[in-house]
Structure to design on (226 residues):
């Protein structure tokens, strides 16, 4: 069975500082990996996805993620956060059955 | 392109009542998903449709939940009777259903059970 662990429930970061959100997955074959962001009262917006190829993936809003097969990780990074990045972030893993398993999420608070 | 549409946005009912949610996926998307998101948790898949057929409903509490996708487009999710633990956000998502196509989510319906 596939699963995702996001070790950090809540992260607080200063505006302009760098951000890294951790994601570890469990999947028996080559995974498809995703990061989604959810603002209060809204649905999930896709930030980026990894299917194959280059292990460093660029996404929207200046985010990037790196797939490390040896560590079963897919960490999300942003060099300089903006106040509008305050939201909840979800990592998800999927496979050929097109189903996703989500982590519990990491809440990001941005302080001025 | 228009996104996934869901209605209503909010619903408050008493326990043991029934409720229905509606979802209109992105045009051309063959696969449709319903998720339940309890506060503080990630979304959990309830049911997956491919066109108008059910692919996976293993996590759907079938004694009280039902879903249909007539004509392979719109879908409804129903709860009857509702329990207190059904309080959650119900998210609908759709995708092309091909290997590299991500899921696109609607804004969800927030359900509160009194």
């Amino acid at each position: 069975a596939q699963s995702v662990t996001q070790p950090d429930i809540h992260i607080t970061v200063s505006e302009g500082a760098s951000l890294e959100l951790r994601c570890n997955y469990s999947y028996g074959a080559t995974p498809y990996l995703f990061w989604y962001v959810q603002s209060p009262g809204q649905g999930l917006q896709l930030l980026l996805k990894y299917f194959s190829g280059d292990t460093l993936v660029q996404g929207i809003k200046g985010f990037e993620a790196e797939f490390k097969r040896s560590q079963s990780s897919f960490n999300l990074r942003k060099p300089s956060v903006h106040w509008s990045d305050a939201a909840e972030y979800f990592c998800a893993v999927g496979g050929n059955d097109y189903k996703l398993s989500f982590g519990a999420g990491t809440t990001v608070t941005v302080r001025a | 392109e228009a996104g996934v549409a869901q209605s209503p946005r909010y619903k408050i009912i008493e326990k043991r009542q029934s409720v229905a949610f509606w979802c209109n996926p992105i045009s051309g998307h063959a696969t449709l998903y319903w998720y339940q998101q309890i506060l503080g948790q990630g979304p959990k898949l309830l049911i997956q449709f491919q066109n108008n057929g059910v692919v996976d409903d293993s996590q759907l509490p079938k004694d009280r939940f039902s879903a249909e996708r007539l004509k392979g487009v719109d879908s409804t999710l129903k709860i009857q009777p509702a329990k207190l633990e059904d309080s959650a956000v119900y998210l609908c998502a759709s995708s092309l259903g091909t290997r590299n196509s991500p899921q696109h989510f609607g804004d969800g319906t927030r359900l509160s059970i009194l």
Chain A has a mean pLDDT of 94. The interface with chain B takes residues 4, 34, 36, 41-46, 49, 51, 90, 92, 96-105 of chain A (CB under 8 Å). The CA atoms of residues 24 and 73 of chain A lie 4 Å apart. The radius of gyration of chain A is 13 Å.
